[in-house]
Amino acid sequence: MGKAVYSEAQIRDYVNPLIKRVSALSDRTQTKIIGVCGGLGTGKSTLSAFLRDSLREKGYSVDNFSIDDFITSYDHRRRLAQQNEGSPFYQIYRAMPGTHRVNDLKRTLEDIREGRDFELPIFDKSLKGGWGDISQDTRKVSGRQDFVIFEGWLVGTPVITSEELKKACDKYGANLDALDPTLKYSKVLLSSLREYQQLWSFLDHLAMLQADSKDSHHEWRNQAEITKAGSNARKKEEVYKYVDVFMPLICAAYEYTQPDVTIKINRDHQFIGKVEKEN
To answer: What is the predicted pLDDT for the residue at 29?
Structure first.
């Protein structure tokens, strides 16, 4: 990942302080796990790769992966969609709570923490007509790492009630009523978050990228669709409807997750402010 991905000012004022905070965690005896979270399109993968490369330049052993590497099989997600017929949260392809192999991910995090070799699955999003499926290939990482960066939009999201979800949606402007007016489906969705909490306990530091406008998520996703598919891109209305399904939990994450540092970004992906949790 080239350094030009961020401006000199962004690196000086935001990225370098983050690298300094993370570097201070190293004791060269135990792998430190760094979480990166944020809503759709905020640049989690870009920041994760930048942190990885920057820490490697400082002489650390570093690797990174995404929670999406641990998405469940196509067959499991299709069954989940059938079991939750009518729920907008489980009619989309993937990524909602309940569509990750949590136990496998926990074992991987245990291996990482203990400095053992570990093996990362590969999820191929191109399979099964875009629903994706688990690839037969894997990626092996040998030797103790000083840092492993673990990114994903759900990373760090706590268990909340449906009433708290509604409150966050009202604050940030997500239309939960249009998706789930009785909160019936939200309660099922939120119950699935419980098993993820064991994963967040492995985090030594959590950085959040937070959009300053909820509309940015829709725009970013639509632009990514155009960039990827060109003339075959889905219609804007379809992309926006897809993002709408994610917005309630994105709002909840912005409101209730407790990251060590939050970096605010505008719709041009420029860093415009940060909040650091006091130690």
So the answer is: 85
Please tell me the distance from the alpha carbon of residue 208 to that of residue 135, in angstroms, as a whole number: 29
Domains of the chain: 3-158+197-215+258-268 (3.40.50.300)
- Render pLDDT for 67-111 as a digit per residue (tens, 0 to 9): 999 999 999 999 999 999 999 999 988 899 999 999 999 999 999
> What pLDDT shows up at residue 4?
60
Q: pLDDT at position 279, please?
A: 59
Q: pLDDT of 33-49, one tens digit each?
A: 999 999 999 999 999 99
**Percentage of residues of the chain with pLDDT beyond 70:** 97
- β-bridge partners, 38: 209
In angstroms, the CA 197 to CA 255 distance is 17
Contacts of 22 (CB under 8 A, 6+ apart): 32, 34, 51, 55, 147, 205
267: tokens are: 């719709």
Separation of first and last alpha carbons in the chain: 31
Using CA atoms, how far apart are residues 199 and 38, in angstroms rounded to an integer?
17
Task: In whole angstroms, give the CA distance from residue 196 to residue 154.
Answer: 9
φ and ψ at 153, to 5 degrees? -70, -25
Q: Tell me how far apart the alpha carbons of residues 243 and 231 are, in angstroms, rounded to a whole number.
A: 20
Cβ atoms 152, 67 nearer than 8 A: yes
Pairing of strands 133-141, 118-124: antiparallel
147: which 2 tokens?
Answer: 């840092």
Whether the CB-CB separation of 265 and 42 falls below 8 Å is answered with yes
CB 198 within 8 A of CB 106: yes
Lowest-confidence pick of 61-75, 146-160, 228-242: 228-242
Find all residues with CB under 8 Å of 136, minimum gap 6, and list them: none
